[in-house]
């Protein structure tokens, strides 16, 4: 009797035979969003904020990632301004060229 209960319990275990497949399907079904071209005013605004950033500031950053816009919120942990300017929020590096909006919270 014990083995029949065990066999029955196995039926209810979740099993992902194609590990990662559902995430891949979700990725392909996501609507692709074209990158927005920023106006001169937008660039000037971003540049003004960029010049006034310092480590430890709490930010909300909207940026383009692969085929869509995403937003991250957190403390600015690192900033690189030479060659390829980018900033780091938590563990996420974001290139300045991908940023569409920065808000200091």
Can you describe this structure?
The longest helix has 12 residues, at 40-51. β3 and β4 form a beta hairpin. The chain has a domain at 33-105: SH3 type barrels (Roll), CATH 2.30.30.520. It has helices at residues 2-11, 21-29, 40-51; strands at 58-65, 68-80, 86-89, 92-95, 99-104. Strands 4-3-2-1-5 form a five-stranded antiparallel sheet. It is of the alpha+beta class.
What is the second-level CATH architecture of the domain at 33-105?
Roll
Question: Which class best fits the helix and strand makeup?
Answer: alpha+beta
Would you count the extended β strands for me?
5
Shape: elongated
Radius of gyration: 22 Å
The ordered H/E elements are: HHHEEEEE
In whole angstroms, the N-to-C terminal distance is: 62 Å
Uncertain parts: none
The CATH topology of the domain at 33-105 corresponds to SH3 type barrels
Helix content: 25-40%
Tell me the number of helical segments per DSSP (H or I, 4 or more residues long).
3
| Name of the level-1 CATH class of the domain at 33-105 | Mainly Beta
Strand percent estimate: 25-35%
Overall residue-averaged pLDDT value: 83
Q: Please give the largest β-sheet.
A: 5 strands, antiparallel
Side by side, the strands of the main sheet go 4-3-2-1-5
């Amino acid at each position: 009797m014990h083995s029949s209960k065990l066999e029955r319990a196995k039926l209810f275990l979740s099993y992902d035979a194609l590990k990662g497949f559902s995430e891949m399907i979700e990725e392909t079904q996501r609507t692709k969003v074209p990158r927005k071209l920023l106006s001169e005013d937008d660039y000037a605004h971003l540049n003004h904020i960029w010049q006034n950033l310092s480590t430890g500031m709490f930010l909300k950053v909207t940026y383009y990632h692969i085929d869509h816009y995403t937003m991250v919120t957190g403390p600015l942990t690192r900033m690189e301004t030479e060659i390829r300017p980018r900033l780091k929020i938590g563990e996420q590096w974001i290139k300045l060229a991908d940023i569409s909006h920065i808000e200091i919270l």
